[in-house]
Amino acid sequence: MPRTVYVLALGIFAMVTSEFVVAGLMPQMAEGLGATIPQIGYLITAFAVAMTVGGPFLTMALMKLRPKPALLLLFVIFLVGNALAATATSYGAMLTARVITGIAAQAFFGVAISVCSAVTREEIRGRAIGVAMNGLMLGTLLGLPMATFIGGNLGWRAAFWAISLLTVIAAVATFFGVPRLERPGSSGGTFREEAQVFRKPRLWLVLSTSTLVIGATFSAFSYFNPILTEVSGFRESSVPILLIAYGAATVIGNSVVGRLADRRTVSVQVVGLALNTLFLAGFAVFADVSAAAVVLMMGIGLVGVTMNPAMATRVQRTGNPGPLVNTVHSSFITLGVIIGSSLGGVFVESFGLRSPLWLGAAIAVLGLASLLPELGRRSRTVPVPVTGKTPTAPSLPATPATPARDTLNLPQEPEQATA
């Protein structure tokens, strides 16, 4: 695996640590900013809205730059946002900081995944994306508990300063570890040509599945801290340890999905969504049983955000591996964060702390439903019987199929195979 992929993972680790830090410091930030826990939860939503709306526009502007300078510029913007968060004295200032960091993080994800695809062979792109996405999983395993620990012992502002330092380290690693690559479109493609792929209705359905996968997980994850302390009965000091356990589950799940993403792209998502439905519903029922709560929370970690490598591989095969497609995909992923965290906050205020878990289970069921058209297309692909004779023209399928690599996956269309 190229060294560049691991450097990109470090940058993603810094971005994700900042994205998730609010979830681990909700009580402290609520007290320090004079806000309620649901209002602090909306900071997660604000980060996601900024990613969804602002990220693609920033990516389009950065397409005029080569990837490496673009990544370094994004680190600068991200650093400014985190410094503002560390010095915020009001909810409004913190909200502004989260918007700045959200826009930069989204553009970074799009450019980074595009670079990851550019430096690896097509047949191992799914695995390479899985390695890069380990930055996301390690953000939950190490980054979030680290920030939660620092915030709990030195104050929540110290957590944002620590993330700022991590950002500088990642930027230095990128400067020395990412090679010089040509800017998007320099090899003959244009922005308009890359954007034409969005005319495919199937691409929008594929993108919506990613939204539902992440929305199901974040409806619960955004409120793990208060659920664990107020329903499951854990002390606040135990939350960082529990989040480490959750993060370890995501690393394991991501590694498995990364290895299966190229060959079992759709079946991985079917199984993952089905299991996540069970884990979320089980957590809602047994949230007041400490041991069961921990096991079910780790189950969510195994099959929730860990679907990222399979989702990215499916999107790239349906569309293309360019930065615009990857950034728009990231926007749909963060739309899931918006749906999960915002509706979760509404449910908490109206129905209590268990309700976001039931909400997540319902969204996961919708995710499964979004895969039915593709599974139906697969079931309608009837293989030609082997008779020893060359089939006549009417017997051939309308679209030539490549050998199926997934018992639940569609054969790649010719345009996907060359994307």
UniProtKB/TrEMBL annotation:
Q: Which residues form the Major facilitator superfamily (MFS) profile domain?
A: 4-379
| Chief location of this protein within or outside the cell | membrane
Q: Where is this region: Disordered?
A: 382-419
Protein's name in the database: MFS transporter
Tell me the InterPro entries matching this sequence.
MFS, MFS_dom, MFS_Efflux_Transporters, MFS_trans_sf
Q: How does it sit in the membrane?
A: Multi-pass membrane protein
Keywords attached to this entry: Cell membrane, Membrane, Transmembrane, Transmembrane helix
What are the boundaries of the signal sequence? none
